[in-house]
Write a structure and sequence with these properties.
Blueprint lengths: L8 H8 L3 H8 L8 H14 L5 H8 L4 E6 L5 H16 L3 E6 H4 L3 H11 L3 E5 L12 H10 L3 E6 L8 E3 L2 H14 L5 E4 L6 H16 L16 H13 L6 E4 L2 H13 L9 E3 L16 E3 L2 H12 L13 E3 L8
Parallel strand pairs: 1-2, 1-3, 3-4, 4-5, 6-7, 7-8
Antiparallel strand pairs: 9-10
Length: 340
């Protein structure tokens, strides 16, 4: 019998009863073109023979490294950190290593970062950034990713993009926020304020407009003065809520387009001698992990961020013309919005 060092891929293919090409695809991580049954069959044959995959030879043959490039808006934001955890977990299961870059801290544009990643030839590039309302193509990032995907690399974009292009993992922010507004109106709230984050970013814009549409569905008047904008952060939520209260407004409930802004809004309410939940209801969006320590417990839209990251990597590793993935959100009502 041959020693493991002399066992070849041809030996494995013969033992598994498959072609050399099928054995290669089954062992090089390209499961998208081989059935799970054949993958199991080939790997079992490789184990019996003691065949060891040469990772460097694989990379040279594919022209791709065993890496994943992950581009985030801000790693300090629990929303992006949750997505990153899912990408990292899914990559580890596939023997891939993730390199992260946060646009907020890099000093580079998204396109510059994507260009650097492309030069490193990772197996996949995943973008999870706060996109501008104008869309994906303004700075050429979408075209760069399409070219990389056509050349054999994997790509995915976490975004709420109409039309669902290949490689997009969609989150229906507008519909989810709309459902939250209807639910809050359904338990007795009839006057609202909306803290909308940055008006030029797609995600907060969709969440704010979706919430307003939900109020209209429920026959509730829109907030006086419209949406109040601020930074997409805890401090942004605090400042916007403080400004609202100092102007004499006293809505029954305030909706912030992220949980972080909602946490800031709760702090501002307390700073003015009022009680979140009891005096003014508060709701957010995302259901980030840190909400476990927030009191009263925050009503929100639960977005499975870890799962979102996993789906993003799985989408990036699918065929180039495959449709994008999606994740479902869920309205969660807690103590911060007791029935009125």
């Amino acid at each position: 019998m041959k020693t493991p060092s002399r066992v070849t891929l041809s030996d494995v293919a013969a033992a598994a009863g498959v072609s050399l090409a099928t054995a290669s695809r089954a062992l090089n991580g390209s499961e998208r073109t081989v059935t799970p049954e054949l993958v199991t069959q080939v790997r079992a044959a490789a184990d019996r023979l003691g065949y060891v995959v040469d990772a460097r030879a694989q990379e040279m043959a594919r022209g791709l490294s065993a890496g994943v490039g992950l581009v985030l808006g801000d790693i300090a934001d629990p929303y992006f950190a949750g997505i990153a955890s899912g990408v990292i977990a899914a990559a580890a299961e596939r023997g891939l290593v993730v390199t992260m870059s946060a646009i907020s801290a890099s000093g580079r544009s998204e396109r510059e970062i994507v260009g650097l990643l492309r030069s490193q030839r990772p197996r996949a590039i995943v973008l999870a950034n706060s996109r501008p309302r104008e869309g994906l193509d303004d700075d050429g990032v979408a075209a760069d990713l399409a070219a990389y995907r056509s050349a054999g690399g994997g790509t995915a974009i976490v975004a709420d993009v109409e039309g669902r292009p290949s490689g997009t993992v969609a989150v229906d922010n507008a519909a989810s926020a709309r459902a939250l507004a209807v639910a809050l109106a359904g338990i007795g709230y009839s006057s609202f304020a909306v803290l909308g984050g940055a008006p030029d970013l797609d995600t907060p814009h969709r969440r704010a407009t979706g919430f307003l549409a939900g109020l209209a569905d429920a026959g509730v008047a829109p907030p006086e003065g419209g949406v109040r904008y601020g930074e997409f952060t805890r401090d942004g939520g605090y400042a916007a809520m403080a400004e609202l209260l100092d102007a004499g407004a006293r809505p029954e409930c305030v909706f912030a387009v992220t949980d972080m802004m909602a946490v800031g809004a709760m702090a501002a309410i307390r700073s003015r001698g009022l009680r979140p939940g009891a005096d003014i209801g508060v709701a957010g969006f995302d259901d980030i992990t840190m909400l476990q320590d927030v009191s009263p417990s925050l009503s929100t839209v639960r977005l499975p961020l870890h799962l979102l990251g996993r789906v993003a990597l799985e989408t990036a590793l699918t065929e180039a013309d495959a449709p994008g993935g999606s994740v479902a959100a869920e309205v969660i009502l807690r103590d911060s919005t007791p029935p009125r």
